[in-house]
Amino acid sequence: MERLRRLPRASTRSGGPHGRPHERLNSGQAHSHGIDPVRGVLFEGPPGTGKTFLAEIMAAQSGATFYLVTISSLGGRLVGESEQRLQAIYDDAATQHLSIIFIDEIDTITGHRDGDASSGSRLVNVFLTNMDGVSKVKNVITIGTTNRAGTIDHALRRPGRFDRELTFTYPAEQDRLDILMSGRHVTSGILDFVTVAANTQGWTAAELGAIWQHAGELAVRAERTAIWNDHFMMGFERADSSRAKKLKEASSSA
Length: 254
Prior knowledge:
Layout: E1 2-3, E2 17-18, H1 27-32, E3 40-44, H2 51-62, E4 65-69, H3 71-74, H4 81-94, E5 99-103, H5 119-132, E6 140-146, E7 164-168, H6 173-181, H7 193-198, H8 205-221, H9 229-253
Parallel strand pairs: 3-6, 3-7, 4-5, 5-6
Antiparallel strand pairs: 1-4, 2-7
Helix pairs in contact: 4-5, 8-9
């Protein structure tokens, strides 16, 4: 189990999820209207589109304790060990004022059940018990990420469980421009953000960030105290080459 430190409050403009924002409804208002609070949200979209980042921002804004759960953190060689670890996370989260349990790539551990004895079935039962069962807790929100929502056990997507879904898409050209121009990079002169934004269709925010990483390394090697446009454009070329290589490798192994 990995319980992250309580994050400082922060503000952000996120262009990752697709959908109309909802007015904030606190638990007191929901209870007075006979409405159960949301217990599960599914973030669907390709890697690198900001799903984890948004969950961390949600935790920071709400002051919630943030739990990061991955398939490796639940892995166990003994029968029942994985579900015991997951239940321990829910037990600890229930003791906090407010908690967000973030399940990365939830489809890898909650596929369609193949009998009650399978590990996936037992993990699904832990989710069902804590989200919509007799022992459900009201101060815990579970967020799962996936790029294969159709493979998740159908029982988890019924009302009272993961009944809210946000779809994350690749950033549009204006979004890419905003991403490239954000941050605290030390630059000098005019950088050609517009050209790079126009030529990075299909890139994720993480891939755009790699441009700055390469540009910064080039500036350091040139013994410059700031990133100039030549570093920035060469950083784009290196990031583009690295991305093309990874896409080719992924295609050949598919």
